[in-house]
Amino acid sequence: MQIREHTLQSFISALSSKEPVPGGGGASALIGALGAALCSMVANLTSGKKKYEMFQADIENILSRSEKSSRQLIWLIEEDAKAFAPLAAAYSLPKENAQREKILEDALVLACLAPMEILRETAKVAGFAGELAKKGSRLVISDVGVAVSACRAAAQGAAMNVYINTKLMKNRDQADKTNGEAEAVLNEIEIKCENIYKQITDELKG
C-alpha cells in the first residue's frame, strides 16, 4: 500500500512504529496538506456569498490553488519516503567500498529534494492563506489562522529534514547552498504566517 492510501489511523500507526518511514518529512507534508485543505474549506464557505461577491473570482482561484497544493503535499509524503531507501542502502555499504562516499553523497542530495519541495509548496499555501485572511468569510476566519499555524509547522519540519541530511554531506559548498535555500524559504513562511496569525488573532479578540 502506498503511504498516501493509508487511513488516518493506519498512517498514525505507521508513523509511531519502528519503521523509518513515514517519518518527520512525511508528517510535515501531511500537516501542510491539512493547512491547504483548511484554505479550501474557507474558500468553499466563502464562494457564492453575496457579502463577498466582489472577491468571487479571487476565491475561485484560491480554491483551485489550495486543492492543487493539497494533492501535491500528499504526493510528497510518498516522495519523501522513497528517498529513504537509497540512503539506507548507501549507509549499509562496506566502508572499504571505493564508491561508498559518492553513493552516500548522492543519496543525501536526493533525500533533500522532497523536503525542499514541501517548503516551496507550503510557501504557496501561506500566500493564498494571506489572501483568505482578507477576503474569506469572517465566520470561518479562525480556520485560516489554524491553516497558517499548520503551514508554519510544516515548513519548520521540512527544513529540519533538509538540515539532518546536509549536516552529513562532505561537499560543504552543496550543503551550505541547500541550507541557504531552505532558510530563505522558511524565513519567508514564518514571517508571513506570524503576521497573518496575529492579524486574525487581533481581529477575533477585538
Helix-strand layout with pairing:
Layout: H1 8-16, H2 24-46, H3 56-82, H4 84-92, H5 100-135, H6 141-166, H7 172-205
Task: Based on the coordinates given, report the CATH architecture.
Answer: Up-down Bundle
In N-to-C order, the SSE pattern is HHHHHHH
Please tally the helical runs, counting DSSP H or I stretches of 4 or more residues. Answer: 7
- Per DSSP E runs of 2 or more residues, the count of β-strands stands at 0
State mean pLDDT (0 to 100 scale): 95
CATH topology name, in short, is Four Helix Bundle (Hemerythrin (Met), subunit A)
The quaternary structure here is: single chain
CATH class: Mainly Alpha
CATH superfamily: Formiminotetrahydrofolate cyclodeaminase monomer, up-and-down helical bundle
Determine the N-to-C terminus distance.
Answer: 48 Å
Task: Tally the structural domains.
Answer: 1
Helix content: over 70%
Label the overall shape: elongated
Helix/sheet category: mainly alpha
What proportion strand? under 5%
Describe the structure.
- With about 210 residues, the protein is mainly α.
- The protein has a single domain (about 20-205), classed as Formiminotetrahydrofolate cyclodeaminase monomer, up-and-down helical bundle (Four Helix Bundle (Hemerythrin (Met), subunit A)).
- About 80% of the residues lie in helices and about 0% in strands.
- It has helices spanning about 10-15, 25-45, 55-80, 85-90, 100-135, 140-165, 170-205.
- Helix 2 packs antiparallel against helix 3 (about 55-80) and helix 5 runs antiparallel to helix 6.
- The longest helix is centred in the middle third of the chain and has 36 residues, at about 100-135.
- The radius of gyration is 19 Å and the shape is elongated.
- It starts with 7 loop residues before the first helix and ends with a helix.
- The model has no long low-confidence stretch (mean pLDDT about 95).
